[in-house]
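Example protein was shown:

_____
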Amino acid sequence: MLLISGLTGGNGEDRRVEFIIPDSARKAGVGHFYIEASCNGMFGADNMDPVDPNRTFRLNSADLVVPNMEAWHVLHDFDTLHQLNNDLPGDSSLAKRALWAANQMMNVFQEGDVDSLKDCRKVAEMVLGKGWEEAIEKDSKKAEKQDGTLWAIGHW
């Protein structure tokens, strides 16, 4: 099984340093991974400017870890609630419920207690719905099989 994924370091929003090995690769018991080390950012070397031949980069760390997927799910739940609160009108009911739930998740979370992660997810489900990730994945698979119609509406 060949897996390819782009990773980018740095400290900004364009940082992408995680790669989750798919279940199929774990079940196969073997995988081939190709790691590219390149001297550029997420969208090339300074976006569109020519590459500075004297610019250097340093690989600070490379770790193979087994993540706590329940913790990752809590992170995604919290991030979704955060986005709802930030992107919806401030006076909307859903934005206020998202803010309340995100705050409640922080109250429920107990450092070092992995069982509190389940409790955090239950709080998030009060806004996002039970099994919201699975429902989105299921709908996405249905959408892949459908023929779509695209309507372009606007001004020239």
In short: The chain is about 45% helix and 5% strand.
